[in-house]
Amino acid sequence: MLWNASAVKGYAIAASDGRLGTVSDFLFDDATWAVRWLVVDTGNWLSGRKVLLPPSALRHLDREGREFSVGLSMQQVKDSPDIATDWPVSRQMETDVYDYYGWSPYWGMGLYMGGYGLSGSTMVESSYLESMRRAERTADTGRKDDDPHLRSIEAVTGYHVHASDGEVGHVEDFLLDDADWSIHFLIVDTKNWWPGKKVLISPQLAREINWSDRLVNLNADRQKVVASPAYDASKVIDGAYEKRFHNHYDDILAPGQP
């Protein structure tokens, strides 16, 4: 199932003996577009301290109560490494958190264990295969760079999106796939260029992200984006939509990519 990142922000995180805080952000790998950490704001409990939890730590989901449970105690979280989440999070910082909890880091696995999946997905098989490919890319990245920086979804929201021949809009939100906690689509608002329309952009279409200029550059032109399958936020992104989307960008996307 695909979730709007903005909708998950604010969900409470419940430990075995109390409430830890609320989801305030997500950190994703800028090479693989996989969410690696949820940033949890502990509020008054730890005087505004933020802690990192991997999606694999999530257990039960209470939709009505907008709450995730985790198999941790409040004391465990309190004693966890203090990470400055407002700064780039290095591989060493990630290692400290994994070592503390006794978890296996994602870069040491044959398959990225991104989460349990919050509900049945119509694309479980394709998500599984993609997670395997993503794990291989992540392992390669880890071998080449022992200190990769993660990126904040909150920070990238609002970045301008440029096609190969001009601006098309700005990043409004992200659609997260709960099967492997990858960024499946960017939701792009085109109101400054094409009033009244929002489009979905696959991370595979992103040629590069210019962090200093706050830009996402695409390897597609404006007309290609204009003619892409219409996005209706009130409708579920199903397999039929995925097929139309992929067929539209078939000359750009690699085989099997969303």
General description of the model:
The chain has seven helices and 14 strands. The chain is α+β, with helices and mostly antiparallel strands. It has a domain at 153-248: SH3 type barrels (Roll). The strands form two sheets. Strands 1, 9, 10, 11, 12, 13 and 14 form a seven-stranded mixed β-sheet that branches. The protein is elongated and about 55 Å long.
Approximate shape: elongated
- Strand composition percent: 25-35%
User: How many individual helices?
Assistant: 7
Query: Could you describe the largest sheet, including whether it forms a barrel?
Result: 7 strands, mixed
- Given this structure, which CATH class of the domain at 153-248 is correct? Mainly Beta
Q: How would you name the CATH homologous superfamily of the domain at 153-248?
A: PRC-barrel domain
What fraction, in percent, of the residue positions are helical? 10-25%
| Rg, Cα atoms, Å | 18 Å
Provide a concise account of the structure shown.
This protein is α+β, with helices and mostly antiparallel strands and 258 residues long. The chain has helices at residues 5-8, 74-78, 91-101, 124-144, 153-156, 222-226, 239-248, and strands spanning 2-4, 12-15, 18-29, 35-41, 50-53, 58-62, 67-70, 150-152, 160-163, 166-177, 182-189, 198-201, 206-210, 215-218.
